[in-house]
Amino acid sequence: MINIQRPSARQNQLLARQSQLLNTLPSTEPSARQNQLLNALPSIEYERLLPHLELVQMNCGDILYEPGEKLHFVYFPTDCIVSQLHAIKDGGSSEVAVIGNEGAIGITLFMGGGTMTNRALVQSAGYAYRIRQPLFMQEFDRHDALLHLLLRYTQALIAQMAQTAVCNRHHSVGQQLCRRLLLSIDRLPSNELTMTQELIANMLGVRREGVTEAAGKLQQAGLIHYSRGHIKVLDRPGLEARVCECYHVVKNEFDRLLH
Amino acid sequence: MINIQRPSARQNQLLARQSQLLNTLPSTEPSARQNQLLNALPSIEYERLLPHLELVQMNCGDILYEPGEKLHFVYFPTDCIVSQLHAIKDGGSSEVAVIGNEGAIGITLFMGGGTMTNRALVQSAGYAYRIRQPLFMQEFDRHDALLHLLLRYTQALIAQMAQTAVCNRHHSVGQQLCRRLLLSIDRLPSNELTMTQELIANMLGVRREGVTEAAGKLQQAGLIHYSRGHIKVLDRPGLEARVCECYHVVKNEFDRLLH
DNA sequence: CATTATCTGTACGGTATCACACATTATCCA
DNA sequence: TGGATAATGTGTGATACCGTACAGATAATG
Q: Name one Pfam family in it (chains A, B) (predicted).
């Protein structure tokens, strides 16, 4: 197993900090079947891919790629969460997609672009399986199931991005906070997250104070409990009642395309 | 040649109105080579596709597909503009992508999803070539050039959507108006557009009054001239100086991926 | 235990956008 | 030509979010 190393200097201290908070990795190593895409492959193709898959530990704050940077692996998370962040010149940024065990990081490899215009950042520690580009492309070109599965997945990702664009325009910080919380706990085994309000603000592209206020309301309503970077979801139905439609639209589209 | 018919009732009167304004179609029929994707194909594959391509007239307000609706053609615009609109329940909407002769409508067909979650609407009249799904898939599966070209195009489209999400969060109506105007004239032969402020407001997902104000400033600055649905761009460099970076980022990504 | 760093709460004025209402002007068409 | 329709201009108050500043509170560290 490999631990991804990156010069951590370029990333905000936020994440360095956060990685100290939560590196409680599960003691048992996961199986590649825990990634839903890999799991959706027919046995024969899964078996053929398996020897090329390498288990890697994903730590909070790890950067899988930067804008314009070549990526050499496709990653299939089993229990970590990665977010695709799009940054602008003045320092602002927004998350355009959240990826967990339902998906893969590195679509640019099979889409043919070579690089992306955004950054992939590990939000929540865990494991992923990865495969080297040449090996992957070999398998990708050889059989249809992998190709068509990944293309459908990419379309689901497109739906997520489009919905994010609309959501950014039309919905309030409070609603988007709900959406973001649900997106995270959907991809985690427990109902506890480890992210500071400042980090959430970065994801949503809003002020930290805005998140404080919105989170305060959710806590007052008894939907969540948070304290210094630890958020516990107490009432999931309550969150779903407050979230904007965007959450369900995207979720339905993922289900439709991948099940 | 075929004229796309749709029950126009479902669409705002805006577009019905607009289609009256601008149906000044060019008198000479275009060539499929005017679509940049088709033009990028090697001759052999282009020739093989050609007999299946059917010229259709695209009128303002035509709807190519609605959310969840099956699409039976892939469209390759030569000189029309189509926008992908994402709507939400309360009636609000935002444009997530603009497609002209650099692209294609109907990626869902080769991505394998069958349907999209948004609507494709003709914004500016013109022509497109289209090909029926079974014929298209036949060609698509047969040779690599078409597949890889369309996948790279799809990645460019993804970049556009991601940037739209960020832009919606961080940039002002004025900047977004500039972006939208540039996107349009890039895809048209002249520097004149035919769209009312209300229609632009629909695209951007903002109020009509907001567009009036922003457009007023641009006119005062001598960058554009507009009058009742006709907009003439007088100073393109001026617009580029005001537009947010999003415009250039997306443009560069298209160039990188498709040239 | 004391210190420091980090996280969260709060408060203030400023600004962009909204929602609504209505006036004005240009174009269309009977 | 005149009335209807469509497009644009303007105004007013509300609201959500921003930028900034700073004050607790909690955890990490030596």
A: HTH_Crp_2
B222 and B123 co-located in one domain: no
Domain ends where: B99, B122, B142? B142
Q: Are A168 and B168 an interchain contact pair (Cβ–Cβ within 8 Å)?
A: yes
Into how many domains does chain B fold? Answer: 2
Asked if residues B115 and B69 have their Cβ atoms less than 8 Å apart, the reply is yes
Q: Which nucleotide is nearest to A16 (CA to C1')?
A: C6
Whether B166 sits inside 8 A of A205 (CB atoms) is yes
In a domain, A7, yes or no: no
Which residue of B lies nearest to A93 if distances are taken between CA atoms? B166
- Choosing among A110, A148, A155, which should be mutated to test the B contact, i.e. which has the most B CBs within 10 A? A155
> Do B176 and B137 share a structural domain?
no
Token output for A191: 């109902």
d(CA A123, CA A92): 18
- Asked whether residue B213 is domain-assigned, the answer is yes
d(CA B97, CA B253): 14
Domain extent for A33: 25-142
For chain D, which bases have at least one atom within 7 A of a protein Cβ? 6-11, 16-21, 26-29
Task: Give the CA B33 to C1' D1 distance in Å.
Answer: 50
**10-residue stretch averages of pLDDT, chain A, 259 residues long:** 40 48 54 93 93 94 94 95 94 95 96 94 94 93 90 97 97 97 94 94 96 96 94 95 96 94
The pLDDT score that the predictor gives to residue A8 is 31
Mark whether A132 and A190 lie in a shared domain: no
Query: Other CB atoms closer than 10 Å to residue B51's CB: what's the count?
Result: 9
| Orientation angle between helical segments A208-220 and A173-186, nearest 10 degrees | 80
Say whether both A32 and A107 belong to one domain.
yes
Is the domain of A45 the same as that of A105? yes
- Name the residue closest to D27, CA to C1': A228
Residue A67 lies in a domain: yes
Sign of the alpha-carbon torsion through B78, A107, B84, B233 = negative
Any atom of strand D under 7 A from CB of A210?
A: yes
pLDDT score, position A29: 67
Nearest chain A alpha carbon to B149? A112
In this structure, the answer to whether residues B113 and B213 fall within a common structural domain is: no
Q: Identify the segments of chain B with pLDDT beneath 70.
A: 1-29
Q: Residue B161 is nearest to which of A110, A158, A257, comparing CB atoms? A: A158
Q: Does A130 lie in the same domain as A43?
A: yes
Is B14's CB less than 7 Å from nucleic acid strand D? yes
Specify the pLDDT at position B69: 94
Rounded CA Rg of chain B:
18
Pair (A180, A131) in one structural domain: no
Cβ atoms of A178 and A239 within 8 Å: the answer is yes
B197-219 pLDDT, tens digit each:
999 999 999 999 999 999 999 99
The reported pTM is 0.91
On whether residue A183 sits in a domain, the answer given is yes
Q: Which pLDDT does position B144 carry in this prediction?
A: 85
CATH number at residue B46: 2.60.120.10
